[in-house]
Every structure is written in C-alpha cells, then in structure tokens.
Amino acid sequence: MNRSAIVVGSGPNGLAAAGLLASRGVEVTVYEQAAEPGGGARSGEPLGTGMITDLGAAAHPFGVGSPAFRALGLEEHGLEWVHPRYPMAHPLSGQDSAILHRDAAATATQFGADAAAWLRVHRPVTAQPLQTLENITGPLLRPPPHLQPMASFGMRALWPAAALARGFFKTAEARALFGGSAAHSMLPLGHPFSAAFGVVFGGLGQTSGWPVARGGTGQIIEALLAVLRSNGVHVKTGAPVTDLRDLPAADAVLLDLTPRQILDLAGTQLSGRYRGWLRRWKYGTGAFKVDYLLDGPVPWTDERTAHAGTVHVVGSFEELVHAEHLTGKGRLPDRPFVMAAQQSMADPSRVSGGRQVLWSYAHVPNGCQAEVGPLIDAQIERFAPGFRDRIVERIETPPDALQSWNPNLVGGDIGGGSLRGTQQILRPVPTLRPYNTSQTGLYICSSSAPPGGGVHGMAGWHAAEAVFKDWERERR
C-alpha cells in the first residue's frame, strides 16, 4: 500500500523531510504560503538587478557538512560551495583583527601563549568534524552515534562561554575570536552550554569552513527542489494552510512551523497538555537586518578582514559579553553585536561593476522597535573608517518585518525559539520523541525541534525518520 505525506512549510527542514520521504517511495505534497519556497534561505535582488542578496541565512558552517544534505546529494543537483580566504574575522580596536583560518594550527599560531589551549579547546571538532556534526544535529536525549567524540565535546559544551574563554585563554584575541563564535547561540555568554557554540562554530570553521552557496543561499533551496522534482514531489506555493482539517487525507503531516503557528493551525486537535507546552514556548533574541550596496569593498583597518566571509563586529571580548548581557535582559546596547557577511567577496558572481553587497544583522531584544540601523553603521565604521561613504543603497529589515516576511521568525528570532533553560535540550516539549506531537500522524519538523536553528535540514530529516519508525511500529 502506497503511503502519503503532507509537509506544511518549505524551509530547508520541510524540504529535507519531503526529500527523505519521497526517496523511500512516499507520495509527498508540500504546501507553502509564500509565493516562493525556501523559508529563511531565500535570495533575491532587492538592491538592484544582478546584485544578489541573501534575504535570510548567509554563511553555512552546518550546511556544508549536513548529513541530510550529503545524503540527498545536493551538490549533484547543482549546489556549489564557495569558500572565502578566511572563514571569519573579529576586528579589534587599535590592533590587528583576530582571524579564523581554515586550519587549526594557522589559527592558533597568532595567539602565542594561547596556541596550545586554542587547539585543545577545539580538538573534539577539528579532529572529527563530521562525527561531531552527526552527534549534535539530532536530539540530545539519545545515545550519540559517536560516543567518544561526544564525551570529549560535552566536557567543553557544558561551560558558559565567558567562563571557558577566561579560564582557558589569556590573550584578548583568542577570547574575542572564541566569544564571537559562541554568540551565534544568541544567548548571554554567561549562560550554561553557550561554550558549545564557540567550540562548534570555531571547530567547523577550521575544518570544513564557513562557505557560501555560489549564486546565493537560495541555490541550496534550488538543489533541494531539484531533488524533490526527481522524486515526484509536488510543491504548492501561494497555498496558505489555516486549518489542518482543510488538508487532504494523508498518512502523515509534518509541520515546518514554530509553536505559535502550530497552535493556530492545529487548535483543539492537540491534547490540552501538549497545547500547554507549546503556549509556554519562549522566543529569543531578535535580529535587526541591514543589507548594504557598496561602491567597493569595506575599508577595514586590517585589510585581511576584507577576505573573511563572516565578520563579528563588536570589539573586545568584554564589549561582546556586555552587549549580549544587555540584549538578553531585553535592553538594546549602544554597541550591539553585529554579524556581517561578505559573500560577494567570495562569490563575485553575485555582483557587477566593482560593487559589493554587505549582509549584516545586529542582535536585539525580541520584537525590538528601536532605530538600530545607525548603531550597525557606527559599529562597522569603528573598524572600517570611511565605510559610510561607500554606501550606495541600504535596506533595513527590523524584527517585525522579518516576521512578516517569514512568520517563523517571531519577533525576529531566527532560531525558532530561545535556547535558554531547558529549551536547548527539550525542544519543543519534554519528551524522548520530540518530532511527534500528541496527535497520531502529526509531526513537527522545524527549527523549534532538535537540533534547532541553521540551514542544515536535520530537524526535517529526523522528523521524516520518526514517521518511518511509527509506520514500522504499525506494521508490527
């Protein structure tokens, strides 16, 4: 008997789920309310024809090594990863930038007395990057596929990032470079487990890199769609789903949605207890995005910074800790943490005429309505004097506009929900079966499920695996 499945939402997770289901003979239909598929991984040309801009995600340390993307063979369907000269740079006032090389030894050399400590901290990832990814891109409440690497990683992951940086590193450069990677957690750096992000992002950068997709992040979506087409999946765009009861009958329905949308969609079909857990779901730090069209490269004080794919713009480690602490308290810092991406320096096909697209966002309180654009300008200008003079055009996208563009980005939260407290481990509810809802045949496959945010497709992959496990139980 042929099985059927419906996926609601066409972000990378929804498309990865559809790809796995279809590859095993399931008849799959994807419903997407937007005019184009892709969720937060779309690209466009809002800054002018031929000026490709990533509308959501930019650099992809998880995407290049994603077990789901590798299994689906995205590179065989047109996806090409492009690596900048340096994965990441962290400018510092009055001195050279700290540089993350795609080589652990080259990175460590710049830290002098901290070189050995730097290598030791990142060794669990740099020694076995793919095994580490397989360990951390699934539910944490399960036996890890690779026990020894997970044990070694876990000893570092439990630390607050600020404590680990101060305990292991003496130099300002090593602390700043590690702290910037840890800030991808969008948590205050005094929060337990925030060190995990510093180890992972730094370790992946020094091995598989932080590449961009040639032609824009949207090319990841194009490759996923090519996989789906080859397996007969029907993707319906401009097709909002407002009530699950309006969907055709299917053996499984997978929701690439966060708890707020699931509550609106599923309503009383979920148990009271499950609804209660979803109502208690908390969204985290928001993003305020600014895309710039420049008349040339960013005039960074340290010229090497121009060749980094990602730049963490905040200043010293102490400034970073202070900024993330205030943001975590719901207060906007005068000097927020800014992440900038220079994709067009690595991928010249995105621009023409000597121009550059600079992608950036600042960490801000969820739903922040303040004027953050000038603060981002000022942060970049600190480390690139003359930056403002290079701006030809700019587009600001505050948290509420991000949410309007993609309803999963509630209050500008790009991670599907805060990682504070138990939400880092128990996503979206306390259960050993995180992809199953309380309704038989209904699953969650978004970044609100393990492993959380990022363009990697793993939440969708594991949700599809949960579907197959349930069907196998039925057959028994």
Describe the structure.
This protein is α/β, with parallel strands linked by helices and 476 residues long. It has two domains: 4-45 and 55-80 and 215-281 and 413-475, 3-Layer(bba) Sandwich (FAD/NAD(P)-binding domain), CATH 3.50.50.60; 81-212 and 284-405, Polyamine Oxidase, Chain A, domain 2. It is built from 17 helices and 16 strands. It has helices at residues 12-23, 67-72, 104-109, 115-127, 129-136, 147-157, 161-168, 172-182, 194-205, 218-230, 259-266, 272-279, 317-328, 343-346, 373-383, 399-405, 458-475; strands at 4-8, 27-31, 43-44, 53-54, 81-82, 86-92, 95-100, 212-213, 234-236, 252-255, 286-294, 308-313, 338-341, 356-364, 391-397, 442-444. It has a seven-stranded mixed sheet, with helices on both faces. A five-stranded parallel sheet has the order 9-2-1-10-16, with helices on one face. Helix 1 (12-23) links the parallel strand 1 and strand 2. Helix 1 (12-23) packs parallel to helix 10 (218-230), helix 5 crosses helix 6 (147-157) and helix 7 (161-168) packs across helix 9 (194-205). It is globular. It starts with a strand and ends with a helix. The model has no long low-confidence stretch (mean pLDDT 95).
